[in-house]
Structures are given as C-alpha cells and as structure tokens.
Write a structure and sequence with these properties.
Helices cover 78% and strands 0% of the residues. By secondary structure, it is an all-alpha fold. It has two domains: 183 residues, Growth Hormone, Chain: A (Up-down Bundle); 213 residues, Growth Hormone, Chain: A (Up-down Bundle).
Length: 494
C-alpha cells in the first residue's frame, strides 16, 4: 500500500493545448518570470563548466595542484547545503529577496576568484560561489511553483532543463577561449556583468515576500551537518587511489545518510518534507527515482578519457561527444513537454527505459578498442544521446510530481529538497563511479586494458540504477491512473 496523506498538495494532471500553453509561458509577465528562472540556471551552469575548463590554467598560475579536486568538491558541498536551505531563504525573503541574495553570494564568490592570489583563496571563492549557485539552481524550481500557474509548470521545467543543457556547451567553450589566451581571471570577470544584470531583473520583476509565510521556521542544523559530512567523506574517499579508502568513504556516507533519515522522522526542524525517506509515500518514490537516475549518469565523468584512450578521439572531439548526454537531455525535455505536456507519469517509465537502453548500447561498444572506427564511434554517440533523452523525457514529470505529492504547507521544502537529492545523488554516484573504475583497473594496470575493464564495469553498475528505478516508476504510473480515475469520478459527481 502507498501511504497518501490527506493533506497532499494535488495539481491538475490534464494539460492544455501545447502551443497555446507555450505561448502563454513566453508572454507578458510569465515570459519575464521564465527568463529570470532560466537566467539563474544559466549563470550556475556556465560557471560550473567554465571553471572546470580553466582550472589547469589556474593551477599553472597560482599553484595548489594538491588541492585541485577540492575546488570542485567544496563547490558541490556548498551547493548542496544551499539547496537544502532554499525553502528557508524563500520563506524569509520571498522570490525577489532570495534571488538577490543568491546573486550577491554568487557575484562575491566570482569576484574573489578573479582576484585569488593562491589556492586557499580560490577554494574560499569556490565555496561562496557554490552557495550562490546552489541557491540559483534550487530557486528556479521552487519559484516556478510560486509565480506560474500549474498548467505551465512542466513547460517551465522543460525550459530550465533546456537552458542547462545549452550552458553545458557554452561553458567549456568560454573557458577554453580564456584558457587559450592565458587569461583565466578574465573568465571570472566576464560573468560579473551578467550577474549584475540578472540581479537587477530579479529585483525589478520578481514578487516580494508573501505575507504570513513561516520565516521563523527552525533550521535543521543537525541534518545539515550530517549532510555536509556525508558529501565531504564520500568526495574525499573518491580522491584516494586506494580503493579501500574509497569503499570506506562510501560506507560512511551511506551510514550518515541513514542517520539523517532517522533524525528526520522525529525532528521538528526538517531538511526534507514528510515522506521523503519512505517508499510507502508517493514523494519518497519520486525522490528515489530522481536519485537513481542521477547516479546512472555519473560514469559520464570518465567518458572523455575513455573515448580518447579506447576510440582514438582528440580531447576536443571527446569532450563534445561526452556533452551529447546534455544535448539529449535538452531534446528529451522538449519532446516530453510538446508531446505529453511534460507532467504525465508515463513519461517517467518511458524515460527510465531510454536510460537503460542507452546504457546497454554503451556496455556493448564502449569497452571495445575501435581506434577511431567511425561506425562504432557513431553508435556510441547515439547511445549517449539516447541516455540523455531518457533523463530529459522523465525530468519534467518527476519535477511536477514533486510539486504534486508535496505535503500541504511543505511545497517550498519539497522543491529545494528535490535539488538537494539531485546534487547529493550526483556526488554519491561520482564517488561510486571512481571506486568502481579503480577496482576495475583504471589506474592499475591502467592504459587501454585498464580503460576497457573500467568502461565495462562502470556501465554495468550504472545500469543497475534504472533497473531498480523501473518498478518505482511503474508504481508512480499506477498512482497517476488512480488520481485520474478519482478526478473523473469527482467530475461526474459534480
């Protein structure tokens, strides 16, 4: 049985005409809101991929190679904590104030990074940037529910996902240009005018704080500390070449996650809405599917290396081939929104099947040594697109079902919690992918033999996650059908 509390917040499952709804999304006030929501995500995503591209130049200039990986780790930890605090920020300051604070944090972190004389200062800037970026990303989903009507939610989610996909292509290109010019500091400076413009639009156009919101709600400090510790432990473990340390880090992180779940069940100050840690609750099912699908994507961090080592691609071509997942995500989101309206639970099932199909194709071809054989590389590219399409098809429906199943009065918490789950699962999946690759011989024996073994096992383990998520997606589909039948019955009675 699925526990469905009576105070669950329900949204309509029916959709209006796709073209008409899309026109309303981009018309008048709705268009400004949509642009603001997407703009914050673009800033976050471009910075994320641009910084990854220029980091070798940063280290060559100011040193700190031993702390190279921590520039990403601290950014991710801060982003996860910011996502977890988004509901409190939104309740205290409203959409306008929350976005301005997020932009200010992001801008300050970016400015510090542009002036960093050494690695410790750069790490500080990345942490501050992570807070701002995490807020920007989580607020996009949380504010969508507040400023747009339910009929446009899935289309706004599609727009947000599409802009993130486009940014994954722009970010490396921008970073690569500044790296080639030996002007990595200018890469940070180039973001500042856009941050200022974005903050001005948010301050001018977004609504202020709603009266009567719970700005004095307590903060779940214990759960936040445990969450940060889990991410730091699993990230630190993944950086070690010793697989025993990686496994220990993963085990400790899972134990800390279980501890969070126990604390949440009886805590007054909550990190996630009620039902988030229960498979008997619809919201718990949706969150778990999001986490599993995010973990299925994490072998992507090795994709560029594997394409170069096993399939003879240049770094530039391999990098853009790896980005095909993001392109597929954008395409899948567009398909989902235009064909189904984006909010139907069947899209989740279809998306999971696409993800599994893409991983099966990769499992067959990626471990081979093609030496650049065009046919094999083309099929691998197609598999990456299929993988991304699967996530894109499922994503609008997953987000709208988070809105749908959020307990009444906890919708903001549910929206921020979705991003927290997404980022935390990505960190967990990255650590697990690193552990699997090392155990499979990525480092020892290394070379082409190690890469082939790692490619095989990375894809095999990744395929477990959509397999596990498929029965969960089918349960969500069943709940959706029950809702449709209940709504039809109520309509007849009326």
């Amino acid at each position: 049985m699925i526990d469905r509390p009576a105070d669950t917040f329900t949204i309509p499952t029916s959709t209006t005409d796709p073209l008409a709804a899309e026109e309303r999304l981009f018309s008048r006030r709705n268009g400004v809101y949509a642009a603001a929501l997407a703009g914050g995500v673009v800033l976050h995503a471009i910075n994320l991929f641009m910084t990854t591209t220029v980091m070798p130049s940063v280290v060559a200039d100011i040193g700190g190679l031993d702390a190279y990986a921590w520039a990403t780790t601290l950014f991710v930890v801060a982003s996860i904590l910011a996502a977890a605090l988004t509901a409190r920020l939104l309740a205290a300051f409203g959409p306008r104030g929350a976005y301005c604070i997020a932009a200010l944090a992001f801008g300050i972190g970016t400015l510090i990074g542009s002036l960093a004389p050494n690695m410790p200062v750069l790490l500080l800037s990345r942490t501050v940037q992570g807070f701002g970026g995490g807020f920007l990303y989580a607020l996009a989903y949380a504010v969508t529910r507040l400023v747009l009507p339910p009929a446009l939610w899935s289309r706004a989610v599609g727009l947000i996902a599409s802009t993130f996909g486009v940014a994954t292509l722009i970010g490396p290109a921008v970073g690569g240009i500044f790296a080639e010019l030996h002007a990595w500091r200018a890469a940070f400076w180039s973001l500042l005018p856009f941050v200022a413009l974005f903050a001005a639009i948010a301050a001018w156009k977004l609504p202020g704080k709603r009266p009567g919101t719970g700005e004095k709600a307590p903060i779940a400090w214990l759960q936040l500390v445990l969450l940060a510790a889990a991410v730091l432990v699993v990230s630190a473990g993944s950086l070690s070449p010793d697989p025993r340390i990686s496994i220990a880090g993963l085990v400790v992180a899972l134990a800390l996650t279980a501890w969070i779940g126990r604390v949440e069940r009886r805590a007054r100050a909550r990190l996630l809405p009620r039902g988030s840690f229960s498979m008997a609750a619809p919201l718990g099912l949706v969150y778990l599917v999001i986490a599993l699908l995010m973990m299925a994507l994490q072998p992507d961090i090795f994709m560029s290396y594997l394409l170069q080592t096993l399939h003879g691609q240049t770094p530039l071509i391999a990098g853009y081939l790896a980005s095909l997942i993001a392109i597929g995500w954008t395409a899948g989101t567009t398909i989902s929104v235009r064909v189904t309206g984006g909010g139907r639970p069947g899209a989740i099932v279809v998306g999971v099947l696409f993800v599994l199909a893409g991983l099966c194709m990769l499992g067959i071809l990626l471990p081979l040594r093609s030496d650049g054989a065009l046919g094999i590389v083309a099929v691998i590219a197609g598999a990456l697109v299929v993988l991304g399409i699967g996530i894109g098809i499922a994503w609008p429906a997953l987000v709208t079902h988070v809105y749908r199943y959020a307990p009444r009065g906890e919708q903001d918490l549910a929206s921020g919690g979705m991003t927290t789950i997404q980022l935390f699962a990505s960190a967990l999946g990255t650590a697990m992918a690193g552990m699997v690759a090392n155990l499979a011989g990525f480092v020892d024996p290394g070379g082409a033999d190690g890469a082939a073994s790692a490619a095989y096992w990375l894809v095999v383990i990744a395929a477990l996650w959509p397999i596990l998520s498929l029965p969960l997606a089918l349960r969500i589909l069943g709940l959706g059908r029950q809702d449709s039948m209940e709504e039809a019955r109520q309509h007849r009675d009326a």
